[in-house]
Amino acid sequence: ASYARIGQVEEQVRAYLTLDEEGAMEAARRLDDKLVSGEARGLLFGLPAGIKDNISTEGLRTTCASQFLSGFTPVYDATVVKKLKAADIVTLGKLNMDEFAMGGSNENSSFYPVRNPWDLDRVPGGSSGGSAAAVAAGEAYFTLGSDTGGSIRQPASYCGVVGLKPTYGRVSRFGLVAFASSLDQIGPVTKNVEDSAYVLQAISGYDSMDSTSANVEVPDFLSSLTGDVKGLRIGVPKEYIGEGVDPSVKETVMSALHVLEGLGATWEEVSLPHTEYAVASYYLLASSEASSNLARFDGVRYGVRAENPDNLLDMYHKSRSEGFGSEVKRRIMLGTYALSSGYYDAYYLKAQKVRTLIKNDFDEVFKNYDVIIGPTAPTTAFKLGSQVDNPLTMYLNDILTIPVSLAGVPAISVPCGFANGMPVGMQIIGKAFDEATVLRVAHAFE
Ligand code: GLN
What we know:
globular, 37% helix, alpha/beta, binds glutamine, 14 helices, 14% strand, EC 6.3.5.7
């Protein structure tokens, strides 16, 4: 059924980079045998899923939507993929994205952009645009995305689906092609909150293969979906509903807050005073980490190698010049500059200090509130091509998701209505490792 649907709409949506119908059918047959033999079934038994193309899949091409890796097939599965296979999913294919997860509209895919299923002239968001569009268009039952500064939540918001960024450390990053290692997290994109809890349950947990994996207990997320939010204290940051946020987006989120109020929750305006510095510090930190992480793409170890180089250095130069797209190059240059001697203190170190202030803002609010709620993004999905020429405008779309990433806390984007004819996402932010409360609130609202 998934492949029939893909056959109907994929030509328009373009959510996938690689489809593996043969592999999927084989996996399905194996599950069928399991059913017949009466073997125990995994938590996600038989669910057809798509995987973002920066997550390593053994024997299945993994490109990060980059020309550099256009012919790259990994020899091992990411931990999340192993866990999903153990939970008995069927992998449909690999999902389109912004190159190396750098972007917020999917227009940085070096293959072709994804389109928003609600309006094909609009972007699906990014960088996990394929992950969100595939779920919205019915081309997968659920998908995995990755979120460094909003890349699960913002596309979920633009495409009217549920996207969860877990606490940093909750889900193993082993096998996720690193963009900014101190921020990257893998998470589920689903049609509803219950599915999100199921997938999170399947992929969470300590992994010795990821040195930043957190050795904390994984609760039963499903049992937290009680529908009860009586007495819940919600903080609404004034910075998240002020200037720069589309008034109709704000209105939609405010009515959602009234729904939660009707269910017995209370809300008050709070402040996250360092919000205005988040985008600047994120783009320094993320680019610095990216410049280091992407040094491994040198034409020797992975992917494309340039033809006829004059010498070794020329081979590096040519391979990188030909293999990377312009946004990736921009970030490598910015990051290299910020880390270079003489500038490190002024940029990288300063940005790290700002990151701490931003985290402290969240800690302060969480002393008195259970969750923080606001819009996921300041606008709804914009028209394809309308922002590509201005990276700075594009970066500002992440203003409401980036602070959460810098603080390392979990957040979900859940559809809460429409503005300008397009879906709006409400962002519910929780304390570190308290995905259970985030899911409970989202589920009660939904
Ligand atoms: N849009 C942001 C960026 O371009 C976030 C990307 C992400 O979370 N991977 O960096």
